[in-house]
Amino acid sequence: MKNNPRSPSISKQSPIFKDKTTTAAVPPLGRTYTT
């Protein structure tokens, strides 16, 4: 579970928020958090 330097704020947000925003912005990042 490594936070990308691109979205340090998303890593602190709730999992739901990350899944929706991260998945749309960075698919690989969203999958890592969702899994």
UniProtKB/TrEMBL annotation:
<protein>
    <submittedName>
        <fullName>Uncharacterized protein</fullName>
    </submittedName>
</protein>
<feature type="region of interest" description="Disordered">
    <location>
        <begin position="1"/>
        <end position="35"/>
    </location>
</feature>
<feature type="compositionally biased region" description="Polar residues">
    <location>
        <begin position="1"/>
        <end position="14"/>
    </location>
</feature>
